[in-house]
Amino acid sequence: MGIDDLIIIPIYFTALFLIGFTYILLSRESNEVKSFFLGGLALKLSAGLIYCLLFSVYYGGTGDTFQYFKDGSVIYDQLLNNFDVGWGLLFLEEKVWDTQTCELMSYMFTYQGTSMALISKFSAVIGLLTFNNFYATTLIFSVISFSGMWALYKVMIDLYPKLTWQMAIACLFVPSVVFWGSGIMKDTVTIGCTGWFVYGFYHLLIKKDKLIVPIVVMTISALLILNIKFYILAALLPGLMIWFVGHHFSYFIGWRIKSIVSIFCMSAIAFLAWFLWPSITGNFENLLEAFISEALGFQRWHSFLFETEGGSGYNLGEIDFTPIGILKKVPASINVSLFRPYLFEVKNPIMLVTSLESTAILMLSIYAFFKAGAFRFFKIICSKPILLGFIIFVFALGFIVGFTSFNFGALARYKIPFMPFYLAFLFIIIEEARLANKAARHLDRSTSLFDR
Q1: Selection from 198, 203, 269 nearest residue 233 by Cα
Q2: Is the pTM of this model over 0.85?
Q3: Mean pLDDT over residues 194-208, rounded?
Q4: What is the CA 97 to chain-centroid distance, rounded?
């Protein structure tokens, strides 16, 4: 950290916080919600700085975040000194690259992958606003992530206005989400886009109170997620569709109408499945092969790091890479994503923090289950389309990242998109169970008085 950093950091930190303060001051939110916004923003900006310091000092200036910034700096320099070349690095396709552009790309590591290159491009563009300062650029990345989480929080308190502090914890104050979603990384952009996508989906298809803004927000968010980590959207969409169908299905009053609609939907699905079956099976085989190849690549690389550098690795036992063999690993994969590393698996200070959070989430999960009771727990889930949609997303993405990561450090980053949804799911379960228990006690009291 140089003298210029010591000057720039407080300027950008203060400026970004003041912009946020002005926004929330002019909003119509309650004082409690405003305090959550300001506290969450301050925490997010601080996490961005801590992220920079951790990778600068603890990890010795290594890691993807520095590579993204380094390659972004190449684009930034070209935009200032040779605009045509810089423009080419940002937007042009391979067939129109010139000799100088290709030469620059030859030593830009992130240009070996499209999703990696996209983050470097973001870093370069944001660098135009920050004089390409690493710390200031990271702060703006942090704000992008925070904006998506705030959008998700707005959705949750619109649905559950009495759970303001619970949803603030879920969306704004989970340590791993705050920290690992604050650097110049893919995860920072994707978690922000996930929050914005759900915001657009809610206002367009559930609440139906807005049109243009949700469409624009969903389109931009979807394109970014697809180009950075497409599997997040693949895991999210089925859950959102369950929420959408379940929400609107509840408006069909009467069992006859519901039965007719159900029969029609199932018949349509059966017909489409029969008509598209050859294409489905062929694409499934291709997708399965691609998934296995990607999983093996991650597993081998992270296992290599664990064996050679003492990384925080894990395994799921012997895996049979067939559809049935992979399905058998679904419970273990979801478990590792949600609740590991356990305390006895801790090997370094970073793992300790992650383990404490995982243990707290495990305890909250157990509390929610026993608070509701086994029967009522599943009854609440089935009766609330939003809960069913959320848990499908959590389980789908939890399986993907748990099955492929094989490293607790990587897992801590990969799982952050679904963590707010899982905690929101638990808080809603607890609240629904509380209301059900309260209603039951009131009924018992009324019956008792009537008997007298």
Answers
A1: 198
A2: yes
A3: 94
A4: 34
